[in-house]
Structures are given as C-alpha cells and as structure tokens.
Design a protein that fits this description.
- Helix content is 27%, strand content 22%.
- The protein has 289 residues and is an alpha/beta fold.
- It folds into 3 domains: 2-57, OB fold (Dihydrolipoamide Acetyltransferase, E2P) (Beta Barrel); 63-209, P-loop containing nucleotide triphosphate hydrolases (Rossmann fold); 224-287, Probable gtpase engc, domain 3 (Ribonucleotide Reductase Protein R1, domain 1), CATH 1.10.40.
- The strands form 3 sheets. Strands 10-9-8-11-13-12 form a 6-stranded mixed sheet, sandwiched between helices. The protein has a 5-stranded mixed beta barrel with strand order 1-2-3-5-4.
- Strand 2 (12-16) and strand 3 form a beta hairpin.
- The structure holds guanosine-5'-triphosphate, magnesium ion and zinc ion.
- The site of magnesium ion has 5 residues, from helix 4.
C-alpha cells in the first residue's frame, strides 16, 4: 500500500495511509532510509508479522529545504501588517524561492481582527496585482479560515512566514488540534521529539505543516538577470527588454521599468526586487574573487 509520511522519529515514521496513521519501522536494510525520509514523502509500505515497513520512497516532485518537506503543492505565506510589522523583502524572498522551485503560493494576511482594514486592502492589492491569490484571515475570530481551507483541497500545504504572525494559531484553527501558540510553541520546539516537520491531515485529503518563523533566510541564489523571472508580474516583460540580460535597473528600453512608470508594477514589489538584485550581484562578485 501507499501512503504519505507525516512525521519522522529516530526509529520509525508515521505514515498516513488513506484514512488512518500507521507506525512504520525502519529496520534492517531500510535503516539507511531514516536519514533520507522526510515529512511529505510518498512511500510504499508493506506489512509483515503485524508490523509495517517502508519498502520504497517514491520519486519526489520537489523538496523544500526550509522547512524540510517533500512534495509540496502549496505554500501559504502568512503575514500580519503591524503585529509584527510586515517585511516585504522577507515575504518576497520566500515568494522568489518558491517561484524558482515551481511551488505555488497563496498570500495570507492574518490578524484581520486587529489590523487596519485600509492598510490590509492596500497590501492585498499589491499581491493580487503581482499575480497571487490572497486570503484575509483572523485565526482568533475564524474569519477567512474556511476560505483558506477551500484553497487547500487535496494539497500538501506548508505554512511559512515570520515569527509571531500566527501560523501555529491558523493551523490549530484549521485542524482543531491543540497546538500551543506563542511562548509555548518555542518550548515544544526545543524538545525534539520529532525530526523536522509534522504534517496534519485535513478534511478533503489535504495535509498541512506548521513551521517556525525563520529569522534568517537564504540569500537568493540565482543569476542576477534571472531574478525578474521569479517575479510573476515581471516574468513576461523581461524578454521584451532591449538588452537580453537586462537587470531592469538603469538600462534603456526596459519593459519592466516602463510597466513600473505606468503603474502596472507596484513600486513596493520593484523595491524588493532591487534589494534582492543587490544580493545576487554581491554574490556574483564574490564568486570570482
Ligand atoms: N489578534 C490576533 N492574534 C493572533 C492571531 N493569530 C495569532 N495571534 C496571536 O499571535 C501570537 C503569535 O501566534 P503564533 O501562532 O504562535 O505565531 P507563529 O507564526 O506560529 O510564530 P512562530 O512559531 O514563532 O514562528 C499568539 O499570541 C497568538 O495568539 C489573530 O488572527 N488575531
Ligand atoms: Mg509557531
Ligand atoms: Zn529591463
């Protein structure tokens, strides 16, 4: 039978096999797999002497490094507006990484119950215009939670975003599981009962994983001229620029800057593009030192 790995412990894995979770051993010749198997993996499982064994890890369609989850269909990028203050470069760094891995993303503006609705709408518009699906939620009041679940059907979903934006709270609103929030989640994380991430089954065949907010994310690792191809609103324009390796910075006949001046690209997105571009250029410079 086939199933999806939902958690990895040091000597066994939990595998969701259709309608329940089974505990699968990694013994004998399979022991070497314990280093490789990750939450999200699709596996073939056999039953011998009443015990489940993982026979094979099926080929992965992708692999997210931070957090380590295999076969991700959708990442929900969660943010607040002022609690904590939104960091557009942090968000766009995640979105660029996901575009480069060909993983779909949805933007989620959480804490709608305490944020200024006008400001939420302004930020919503920026990401809608950029080509992203957006949902506004309050994990506290429940607003938008069923809409978010509706976007998840059948998918392997990861919640990502800065610390304190409400990822764990959203997960518990979705799964009705008692998952500690705030200070408690940190204590929980320190215990290391599971290696890496735990996936929770959700109605409709979906899975969802919580992750801790990362204070540092990897620098964008792409050639400078390819960065615009990871901005949804720029990817179709970049090939129209006069220079084939246009950086959309100061070059003449630049389709991206033209779209910016005509209001088709949000200045906020262009600003994070320039910030991430500088990182790419910096990296390139050191590559040849
Ligand atoms: N008012 C309000 N507070 C919320 C909402 N969602 C979460 N919070 C609160 O915000 C704080 C942080 O929530 P968490 O769910 O722990 O945030 P997190 O994103 O999981 O943070 P890390 O695990 O550190 O990455 C907690 O005190 C929550 O109760 C919301 O929709 N509205
Ligand atoms: Mg959390
Ligand atoms: Zn250009």
């Amino acid at each position: 039978m086939e199933g999806r790995v939902t958690a990895v412990h040091s000597s066994y894995c939990l595998v969701w096999a259709g309608e329940s979770t089974v505990r699968c051993s990694l013994r004998g010749r399979l022991r070497h797999l314990s280093a490789q198997v990750t939450a999200g993996d699709l596996v073939r499982v056999s039953r011998r002497d009443g015990e489940y064994l993982i026979e094979e890890i099926l080929p992965r369609k992708n692999f997210l490094i931070r957090p380590p989850v295999a076969n991700v269909d959708l990442v929900v990028v969660v943010t607040a507006v002022t609690h904590p203050p939104i960091d557009l470069t942090y968000i766009d760094r995640i979105l660029v990484h996901l575009e480069s891995q060909d993983i779909d993303a949805v933007m989620c503006f959480n804490k709608a119950d305490i944020e200024d609705p006008a400001e939420v709408r302004r930020l919503e518009d920026i990401y809608r215009k950029a080509g992203y699906d957006v949902v506004v939620t309050s994990a506290l009041s429940g607003e938008g939670i069923s809409e978010l679940v509706g976007k998840m059907k059948g998918s392997n979903v990861v919640l990502a975003g800065a610390s304190g934006v409400g990822k764990s709270k959203i997960l518990s609103a979705i799964t009705q599981e008692e998952i500690s929030t705030g200070r408690l989640s940190k204590i929980r994380r320190g215990r290391h009962t599971t290696k890496g991430v735990t996936l929770y089954p959700v109605q409709g065949g979906a899975f969802i994983a919580d992750t801790p907010g990362f204070s540092r994310l990897n620098v964008v690792e792409c050639e400078p001229f390819t960065l615009a191809y990871y901005y949804r609103e720029m990817m179709d324009l970049a090939p129209l620029c006069h220079f084939p390796r246009c950086l959309h910075k100061t070059e003449d006949s630049c389709a991206v800057r033209e779209a910016l001046s005509e209001g088709r690209i949000a200045p906020e997105r262009y600003e994070t593009y320039l910030a991430l571009l500088d990182e790419c250029l910096e990296r390139e410079k050191h590559k040849y030192e």
